[in-house]
Design brief:
Structural class: mainly alpha
Subcellular location: Cell membrane; Golgi apparatus membrane
GO cellular component, one term: Golgi membrane
Organism: Eleginops maclovinus
Number of strands: 0
Largest sheet: none
Protein name: Sugar transporter SWEET1
Strand content: under 5%
Shape: globular
Low-confidence stretches: 209-217
GO molecular function: sugar transmembrane transporter activity
Mean pLDDT: 88
Amino acid sequence: MDLMQLLSWACIVFTVGMFSTGLTDLKKMRETRSADNIQFLPFLFTCLNNLGWFYYGMLKKDQTIVFVNVVGALLQILYIIVYLHYTKQKRLVTSQTVAAGTMLACGWFYFTTFLTEGDTRLSQLGLACSVITVSMYLSPLTDLVEIVRSGDVQRLSLPLTVATFFTSTSWVLYGLQLNDQYIVVPNTPGIFTSLIRLYLFWRFAAVSQSSPAYSSM
């Protein structure tokens, strides 16, 4: 097995593992028959992100990107369906889902109608996917500031943090091998935010030793 195959398998294993951390929330919803204290928008935006990268992988003819994001999108759709079943805010969640679907359809129409096939479409799509991915990695920074102030890391998920670190690292190395900046750049912030989270776990571990197990975000 050469280096490229090794990195490909690493990306698949770690990324699917990261997406699978949502199964904890799914289990919680089924046990409590409620979606209270579980955030919906991360499922929705991750699904949109997966579908965007799936299209990028199809244009690039990269089976690793395609496979990972098919699995990711299917898992997010499962989480969304279960959330819709148990939430008390069905009208709000449904409207958010419809809005996201409309935005996805408009994006697909733009890329397939106004952009010529080839490098132009691929680069524009890669840029759009990169912006979404970076924003998702940076969105928890406000929570990290609050954790530094309070010293309470229970709102963080240690398994998700570890999975995100290895996933981001794998994709950065994979992108470097492909010389693809649209893979390298958006995954680099994931490494740094994961390291910050791991530092916070270590820094405030003594404070939280007597607390229950870490809850998912």
